[in-house]
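Preliminary data (for renewal application), magnesium ion complex.
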Amino acid sequence: MAEIGIDVKYAAKLLRKGKLVAIPTETVYGLAANAMDEDAVVKIFEAKNRPRFNPLILHVSSVDKIELYAKLFFPLAKKLAEKFMPGPLTLLLPKKEIVSDLVTSGNSTVAIRVPNHKLTIDLLNEINFPLVAPSANPFGYVSPTSAEHVQKQLGNKIEYILDGGECAVGIESTIVGFDENGNPAMYRQGGISEEEIEKICGIKVLKIISEENSPSVPGMLKSHYSPETNFIIGNIDELIKLYSDKKIGILSFDKSHLASNSIMSLVLSEKSNLNEAAKNLFSFLRILDEANLDVILAEYVPDKGIGKAINDRLKRAAEKN
Ligand code: TXA
Ligand code: MG
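Predicted structure:
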């Protein structure tokens, strides 16, 4: 089992030695390694059982570090960085030579973000290298939003988990890339909404997000964020009737649905608040997945703002491998 604590200096020491450390961010917990140490980076792919073609995000302490690793910082990228960093935004920018192909899976772009969590910023200020950090879950499973989630699934593969409490946003960063003219494109819905991105850019963003099993953006794999339990989305009242002979769990947006055969009914936000729903999503999915159910019945949330990212994760959770 990993040790859990808040010792930033100890975490820094382990990272300097090429070891893996789980770190808190405002989105989800990351499994971090020294981005400049290829042997350390390889350990991430191994611990997560993650295919090597799935590139990693570089985490830096402040916006002024971005140009150490990106050779172009498009004007709109800069504008987004000034507005949303530190925060749940990742920018895809043409990479400098110094960034290993192992980090970018051979892509010419590198994903960079500035996490908004005090412990992790303190940690980044303690070391003199950036961190690569994918979500700290086995590949394809639900992302962790607490130190306990990380302990349960990867505790035997790492020595230390930096405990920053529950993640405030609860869903991964929004990934924005750029075409050769510097026009923005959405690669992943996340903590910053598409509407907010468009407002700052003053133009519509292109959509790169596809339903295909695109090797360059495996966070976008059709089946991802998946619980082990059969997971079905639709009209909950109708689904309850359909599964009347099963042990069911219910994950609804703002109203609870009572059924005689329901073991558990979790409401993402009784106040119909999408931010609260995002914060609860992954931990509620885990609770339901661990409750020994035949099936989990869920519904989409309103498809606006961060609701788009929630619906994206729900949809992928429901896809079969
Ligand atoms: O909120 C987050 O972004 C969290 C926290 C820990 O920072 N990290 C995270 O990492 O979600 P991960 O590895 O689970 O997802 C990163 C996504 C993947 O879908 C990956 O394919 C995409 O970013 N990505 C990274 N570098 C890329 C690149 N050069 N081109 C295209 N996609 C890239
Ligand atoms: Mg992930």
